[in-house]
Amino acid sequence: MTIIKGTGSILPELVVTNEQFNDHVFYDKSGTQLPKQGAEVTAKLESITGIRERRYVPFDQDSRPLMTKAAELAIENAGVNPNDLDGIIVAHNAGNMLIDENYFHTVPNMAALLKNTLGITNYECFAYDILFACPGWLQASIQAHQAINNGDAENILVVGIEVASRLLDPHDLDSMILADGCGAAVLSKTSENKGVLACATFSHAQSDVSNIYLGKSNNPEQDGNCWFKMNGKEVYRYATTWVPKVIQKVLDKANLNVTDIDMFLFHQANDKLIHAIAKNLAELYQTDLANFDGKLPMTIQFLGNTSVATIPTMLDMILRGKLEGYEIHEGQKVVMASVGAGMHCNAIVYQF
Ligand SMILES: CC(C)(COP(=O)(O)OP(=O)(O)OC[C@H]1O[C@@H](n2cnc3c(N)ncnc32)[C@H](O)[C@@H]1OP(=O)(O)O)[C@@H](O)C(=O)NCCC(=O)NCCS
User: Which of 27, 80, 276, 317 has its CA 20 to 30 A from that of 184?
Assistant: First the structure.
């Protein structure tokens, strides 16, 4: 079986509070300035999403220091010699964010950059990236599990790095939701009867393909065509419909009921969305929503939506006792589930 042998995460240095958006001028997608601005808007953001602050990588850094530190912490925590890694998979959305540039670079790929900064010389350790939006780290973990399961690898480092801050349109309300972060884990082969019990992935990519994309600013005067954009209501509809179903799929594969699960690590998109997913999951299983009490850890309030870094960061915080009120004990079963641009959603059920 495959276990998560060690985890690591790192919170970017810059803390950006909601108040810091009070002087932004917001427009809608048609380029019309919104009637409400300032504190009224940020208060609304907090009431819908729960977000009070988020963190950004300083503009005088590229993505490498964050990615390297999180990976080093995970490797140290796993007690694995870096040169004994059989593979590195880095999930991200836009490659390396260069210093003082709102632009991304994907050549060489992020896993190659990470292998280089970690000083790993073993050329049999593969290093590739996956582009799978917010569910990228979970999907990379599924790939690592599959490689371990079929005997091709024993230890794989899986990293999720997000530096969304450089792609956020200052004139779009939804830009206040996204943030930066990095989480990592070493997945390893075990002979013990625990670890990954089942995985499931759905990729729709039909009309939903245009729910999240890179495009022009809402402000017609603002240059560039690589700003992060989303149709929030469509994303909400997709996530609340399909995340419960992909969880049902993974639980069916593991022959478990939702009531067997001790904790749900959901992608931290926003407070309202997370609770709606739990409500729909409860309805799917005709169980009381109260069954989820104390089982839904959240980081959204102080980290925002860190996309592909969300789940590994939250997992690391819990395992290191840094998320108040949440502990995972030996033998407990946890569901991790994510959703994002594509649209895709996925889930893993894991026994500690
Ligand atoms: C974006 C989202 C939070 C908006 O929530 P909603 O309740 O549907 O909001 P509505 O579009 O109906 O707008 C309601 C009000 O909130 C405001 N609002 C919407 N999004 C906002 C935002 N990001 N920040 C501040 N205010 C916002 C609207 O301007 C509107 O204000 P009004 O009542 O004064 O007219 C919601 O659609 C959502 O959760 N989408 C998923 C987004 C997401 O997490 N994407 C990333 C997934 S990986």
Answer: 276
Q: Is the CB of 133 under 6 A from ligand 1?
A: no
pLDDT digits (tens, 9 = 90+) for 291-336: 999 999 999 999 999 999 999 999 999 999 999 999 999 999 999 9
Residue 232 CA to ligand 1 center (angstroms) comes to: 6
Domain map (residue ranges) of the chain: 2-192, 196-351
Handedness of CA 67, 69, 75, 77 (dihedral sign): negative
Whole-angstrom CA distances from 81 to 122, 195, 289 are 11, 21, 44
Topology of the domain covering 2-192 = Peroxisomal Thiolase; Chain A, domain 1 (3.40.47)
CATH number of 196-351: 3.40.47.10
Asked if residues 187 and 195 have their Cβ atoms less than 8 Å apart, the reply is no
* pLDDT tens-place string over residues 66-125: 999 999 999 999 999 999 999 999 999 999 998 877 778 999 999 999 999 999 999 999
The three-class DSSP label of residue 291 is: helix
For a ligand 1 pocket test, name from 25, 134, 174, 307 the mutation site with the most ligand atoms within 8 angstroms of its C-beta: 174
**Ligand 1 atom 31: the closest Cα is on which residue?**
44
User: Which helix or strand (DSSP H or E) is residue 188 part of?
Assistant: strand 180-189
Answer whether 2-192 and 196-351 agree in fold. yes
Residue 291 pairs in a beta bridge with: none
